[in-house]
Specification:
With about 90 residues, this protein is α+β, with helices and mostly antiparallel strands. The protein has one helix and four strands, in the order E-E-E-H-E.
Protein backbone atom coordinates (compact mmCIF):
# COMPACT_ATOMS: atom_id res chain seq x y z
CA UNK A 1 0.00 0.00 0.00
CA UNK A 2 1.25 3.48 -0.82
CA UNK A 3 1.18 6.36 1.67
CA UNK A 4 2.10 9.91 0.67
CA UNK A 5 2.81 12.67 3.20
CA UNK A 6 4.32 16.11 2.69
CA UNK A 7 7.74 16.77 4.21
CA UNK A 8 9.17 20.24 4.79
CA UNK A 9 12.90 20.67 4.15
CA UNK A 10 14.72 23.61 5.68
CA UNK A 11 18.32 24.61 4.98
CA UNK A 12 20.34 25.23 8.14
CA UNK A 13 22.98 27.88 8.76
CA UNK A 14 25.68 25.26 8.12
CA UNK A 15 24.24 24.36 4.71
CA UNK A 16 22.73 21.01 5.71
CA UNK A 17 19.03 20.22 5.48
CA UNK A 18 16.54 19.31 8.18
CA UNK A 19 13.17 17.78 7.41
CA UNK A 20 9.96 17.29 9.31
CA UNK A 21 6.54 15.91 8.56
CA UNK A 22 3.71 18.19 9.70
CA UNK A 23 1.36 15.19 9.91
CA UNK A 24 3.71 12.61 11.45
CA UNK A 25 4.42 13.58 15.05
CA UNK A 26 8.13 13.51 15.95
CA UNK A 27 9.17 12.26 12.50
CA UNK A 28 12.35 14.07 11.48
CA UNK A 29 15.31 13.62 9.16
CA UNK A 30 18.45 15.47 8.17
CA UNK A 31 21.14 15.28 5.54
CA UNK A 32 24.21 17.04 4.24
CA UNK A 33 22.45 17.68 0.92
CA UNK A 34 18.80 18.02 -0.07
CA UNK A 35 18.93 14.66 -1.86
CA UNK A 36 20.36 12.98 1.24
CA UNK A 37 17.73 14.61 3.44
CA UNK A 38 14.98 13.38 1.09
CA UNK A 39 16.36 9.83 1.27
CA UNK A 40 16.56 10.01 5.08
CA UNK A 41 13.02 11.47 5.24
CA UNK A 42 11.76 8.54 3.18
CA UNK A 43 13.39 6.11 5.63
CA UNK A 44 12.01 8.00 8.64
CA UNK A 45 8.48 8.07 7.21
CA UNK A 46 8.68 4.37 6.36
CA UNK A 47 9.72 3.54 9.93
CA UNK A 48 7.09 5.86 11.44
CA UNK A 49 4.23 4.52 9.32
CA UNK A 50 5.27 0.88 9.79
CA UNK A 51 5.37 1.31 13.56
CA UNK A 52 2.02 3.11 13.66
CA UNK A 53 0.36 0.43 11.55
CA UNK A 54 1.78 -2.34 13.74
CA UNK A 55 0.47 -0.65 16.91
CA UNK A 56 -3.06 0.46 16.07
CA UNK A 57 -3.41 0.96 12.35
CA UNK A 58 -4.50 4.61 12.67
CA UNK A 59 -2.69 7.05 10.42
CA UNK A 60 -3.20 10.82 10.54
CA UNK A 61 -4.95 12.71 7.76
CA UNK A 62 -2.70 14.20 5.09
CA UNK A 63 -2.34 17.99 5.14
CA UNK A 64 -2.93 20.03 2.02
CA UNK A 65 0.38 21.60 1.00
CA UNK A 66 -1.37 24.98 0.65
CA UNK A 67 -2.36 24.86 4.33
CA UNK A 68 1.18 24.39 5.69
CA UNK A 69 2.78 27.24 7.63
CA UNK A 70 6.04 27.60 5.74
CA UNK A 71 9.04 29.87 6.17
CA UNK A 72 10.77 31.59 3.29
CA UNK A 73 13.11 29.11 1.63
CA UNK A 74 11.26 26.01 2.83
CA UNK A 75 11.02 23.22 0.30
CA UNK A 76 8.05 20.85 0.36
CA UNK A 77 8.23 17.39 -1.16
CA UNK A 78 5.64 14.67 -1.05
CA UNK A 79 7.27 11.56 0.32
CA UNK A 80 5.86 8.29 -0.94
CA UNK A 81 6.18 5.22 1.26
CA UNK A 82 5.29 1.77 0.00
CA UNK A 83 4.41 -0.71 2.72
CA UNK A 84 4.07 -4.30 1.64
CA UNK A 85 1.47 -6.08 3.70
CA UNK A 86 1.69 -9.79 4.16
CA UNK A 87 -0.70 -12.37 5.50
CA UNK A 88 -1.00 -12.06 9.25
CA UNK A 89 0.66 -8.62 9.36
CA UNK A 90 -1.78 -7.35 11.96
CA UNK A 91 -1.64 -10.31 14.31
Amino acid sequence: MKFIYPAVFRKTETGTYQAFFPDLECCYAKGDTLDEAIDKANEAANDWISLELSEDGELPAVSDVNDLALLEGDIVRNISVNIRFYEGWDE
